[in-house]
Specification:
It is a single chain. With 613 residues, this protein is of the alpha/beta class. The chain folds into four domains: 229 residues, TIM Barrel (Alpha-Beta Barrel); 110 residues, no CATH class; 99 residues, Thrombin, subunit H; 96 residues, no CATH class. 24% of the residues lie in helices and 28% in strands. The protein has 14 helices and 32 strands. The strands form six sheets. It has an eight-stranded parallel barrel, surrounded by six helices. Strand 21 and strand 22 form a beta hairpin. The longest helix is centred in the last third of the chain and has 22 residues.
Length: 613
């Protein structure tokens, strides 16, 4: 009879810094990803080596992992520093490095796991198969893929696959956005995107008719794949990623806990699915992703194309709580499904369609008293809460979650004293002894109870004592100080043993000559250094040009390539919907005096944005 292969499932959470990383682990993350001191795709979320090492040591106590994001395209004079950083990551025990620039693969790297960033445009099966054969341990998939495409990729690759499950969406295919670089020299491929997709735009047709005014035509809702978690696991996805290295701490705690609880329920359904780390979490709150930052949710293209933009605002709308029945001079009479408290921030879409908001000064019955009475609010207006005062207060507590690793203690006597052995839930074991005088107990039952009581405590350690086994045949009087000292030394040694046990194994990267899946490598490969050129040449591709951050040659090149379609979003798809005459011609976006031309590839269901000639 064949044994079922265990599939270890990783919940991967964002870590803006050391504190955020620790709290993500406390709230159930099996792994966290954190920005390198330089060259990360979120330049404002860099961290020192000392902090990364501290996070590694904290994570490994729970058998959790730390992935460091070094995922930008690099210039020639940056490669040496980037390679040295990777060597330092290896030395401090980092589990994996997330990279975008293939020039790094030409260097002499230490034996550390390499993950292919989603910034490598991991969208097509052919590209992902190439990266798989090149030797990446893991490939982070593009968010635009459908469940069917993910299943096909899983069936035709061997590398670990990582999928996003929650967070903000870039409207452009990752690694293929050059609009921020063009507008103000801040490249998303270099970690400093100015987020032009969150700006408002006017939409014109070829006749210069204004079709849509002042709307966030490129701003998407936030991704939420929570209803598809079991499907991901059934397909063989082993890492589920939460986006949000720039989000606040309450977001990280809440969203991580939310997915931890969902996953734990799913893992119980199949014996071969196991959590990728150790310990159980106890939360002081009920996680709810609608109660922290969100622009509304979409599962994007997982099932089928659907409306997915947040056209009226790029800001958080929070959770719907009810509606306005009546607007008095200084109060709103409301019907709400959830209690509202003083300090809450409420918002609504006014008569103009714009998002507006106010703070709640007090609540009496069904009357809500705003700090400033809003103008554009009428009976029937839907109310949302985007600042949940009571919920945020719970999340701000240092003990909003406690995570403990189960351990069994065995107490026994020796020729010269006593011994305490600890074995944790992962099978890591240690034993300490104490030489002391052995005095038979006058009250054996009380002595036995004292031993169990004192050894059951775990204090501020990462452990939870699940069982104490007393193997002493004769019961002795043992001072509480002796028992406490034994337990303290035993658990301290066990913590150290866990750090040694969970240091990552060496992963050697071997260069090969697997042919590139295309004949040429052009500006879309984002080549900014000569080592990256050598990489593509070694794999048989003709390199025709450097990336746009180096050439600044935008003429005739798409500033964005996106699966999102403005025509479809506005109900004007040439394939699926009846289309008004105004939308049949060429379309243009305008923002701050700049005009961009939209080109539609209806065969492949994609849209591109170019400079208007």
């Amino acid at each position: 009879m064949s044994r079922t292969k265990t599939q270890r499932i990783e919940l991967l959470a964002p870590a803006k810094n050391l504190q955020f990383g620790k709290e993500a682990i406390n709230h159930g993350a099996d792994a966290v990803y954190i920005g390198a001191p330089a060259f990360g795709a979120r330049a404002s979320a860099g961290n020192s080596l000392a902090d990364i090492e501290a996070l590694v040591n904290y994570a490994h106590l729970y058998a959790a992992k730390v992935h460091v994001a070094l995922n930008t395209s690099l210039f020639d004079d940056e490669l040496e520093q980037a390679v040295e950083l990777i060597r330092q990551f290896y030395n401090i025990g980092v589990d994996a490095v997330i990279v975008q620039d293939p020039g790094l693969l030409e260097a002499d790297l230490p034996p550390i796991a390499l993950h292919a960033s989603t910034q490598m445009n991991n969208y097509s099966l052919e590209r992902i198969q190439f990266l798989d054969k090149v030797g990446f341990r893991r490939i982070i998939l593009a968010r635009e893929l459908s469940l069917e495409q993910i299943a096909e990729i899983r069936a035709n690759t061997t590398a670990e696959l990582e999928c996003f499950v929650q967070g903000a969406l870039c409207v452009c295919l990752s690694g293929q956005c050059y609009m921020s670089q063009y507008i103000n020299g801040r490249s998303g491929n270099r970690g400093v995107c100015s987020q032009p997709c969150r700006s408002s735009y006017n939409l014109y047709n070829a006749e210069n008719k204004l079709l849509v005014a002042d709307r966030h035509l490129l701003s998407l809702k936030d991704f939420n794949a929570s209803q598809h978690l079991r499907k991901y696991l059934e397909m063989g996805i082993t890492s589920l990623k939460i986006e949000g290295r720039l989000k606040d701490l309450c977001y990280v705690k809440n969203v991580t806990a939310y997915y931890r609880k969902l996953l734990d329920d799913i893992l119980l359904q199949k014996q071969s699915w196991q959590k990728a780390s150790s310990g159980q979490c106890v939360f002081s709150f009920e996680p709810d992703v609608e109660r922290t930052f969100n622009r509304g949710f979409t599962d994007y293209f997982l099932r089928d194309r659907q409306p997915m933009a947040s056209l009226t605002t790029q800001k958080s709308i929070g959770k719907r709580i009810g509606k306005v029945l009546k607007a008095d001079r200084n109060a709103l009479v409301c019907k709400t499904e959830l209690p509202v408290t003083a300090g809450d921030g409420l918002c609504f879409f006014g008569i103009s369609g714009a998002l507006q908001g106010f703070s709640v000064n007090r609540v009496i019955g069904n009357k809500v008293y705003p700090n400033n009475m809003p103008d554009e609010i009428v009976p029937g207006t839907e109310l949302y809460r985007n600042n949940d005062f009571a919920f945020e207060k719970l999340l701000q507590s240092e003990k909003s979650a406690v995570r403990r690793v189960g351990v069994k203690l065995v107490f026994s006597d020796t020729d010269s004293g006593f011994a305490l052995q600890a074995t944790d839930e992962d099978g890591v074991m240690t034993c300490v002894t104490e030489d002391c005088e052995k005095q038979p107990a006058l009250n054996p039952d009380k002595a036995r109870q004292t031993i169990e009581t004192q050894l059951s405590k775990s204090g501020d350690t990462v452990f939870r004592v699940d069982e104490v086994e007393n193997q002493c045949v004769e019961q002795y009087f043992i001072p509480a100080s002796v028992l406490n000292g034994l337990r303290r030394r035993c658990l301290e040694e066990l913590q150290q043993k866990r750090l040694e046990h969970f240091r990552p194994a060496d992963v050697h990267f071997e260069k090969n000559d697997v042919p590139y899946f295309k004949d040429t490598a052009d500006f879309r490969e984002n080549i900014l250094n000569h080592k990256a050129l050598e990489f593509y040449q070694r794999h048989g591709a003709e390199t025709t040009e450097f990336g746009l951050e180096k050439t600044l040659d935008y003429a005739g090149k798409p500033l964005m390539t996106t699966k999102y379609c403005i025509r479809y979003e506005l109900g004007q798809c040439l394939v699926r919907h009846p289309v008004t005459e105004n939308y049949r011609s060429e379309l243009y976006l305008e923002n701050n005096g700049r005009r961009f031309a939209l080109k539609f590839d209806c065969k492949n269901c994609q849209m591109q944005i170019f400079l208007k000639k």
